[in-house]
Amino acid sequence: MVKTENVGLGSQAWWSHPVWLSGATASVRAEWVLTKLLMSDTARLRGVLLPLFKAKKVQPSDIGRDDWQTILRGMGASDDEVSEVISRLGLGRVTWSLKPGPIMRFE
After folding, report:
1. Assign residue 79 a region: left if phi > 0, alpha if psi is -120 to 50, beta otherwise?
2. What is 4-36 written as a DSSP string?
3. What is the pLDDT of residues 12-27, one digit of tens each?
């Protein structure tokens, strides 16, 4: 049996892309993140999105931070990556508390 560790999304490499450096709109940035997730694992992303949005048509700019957390977690993001992506999408700063269990707070 091979043990695998959650290595995350590798999102640190994303932030040097022109979409982040050019001052793109929140909608463009959200669409870009979804595209990166789709390219990394289409089946997994569909498996995360289907129960979340069911048959609704949702624009990337309409996805709230709770839904982003669910999407990123479902795709294997680490705590730091969830915080970083949500912050870079302009959805607030995320802090983690370990009392009494892992709790994510938005500020």
Report:
1. alpha
2. -------GGGGGGSHHHHTT--HHHHHHHHHHH
3. 888 888 888 887 888 8
d(CA 85, CA 31): 12
Q: Which amino acid is at 7?
A: V
DSSP assignment letter at 99: S
Distance between CA 51 and CA 4 in Å, rounded? Answer: 26
Global pTM reads 0.79
* C-alpha of 16 from chain center: 17
CA distance 62 to 17: 23
Q: Decide if 31 contacts 60 (C-beta within 8 A).
A: yes
The residue with tokens 């977690």 is: 73
Q: How far is CA 57 from the centre of its chain?
A: 19
Residues 6+ apart with CB under 8 A from 52: 67, 70, 71
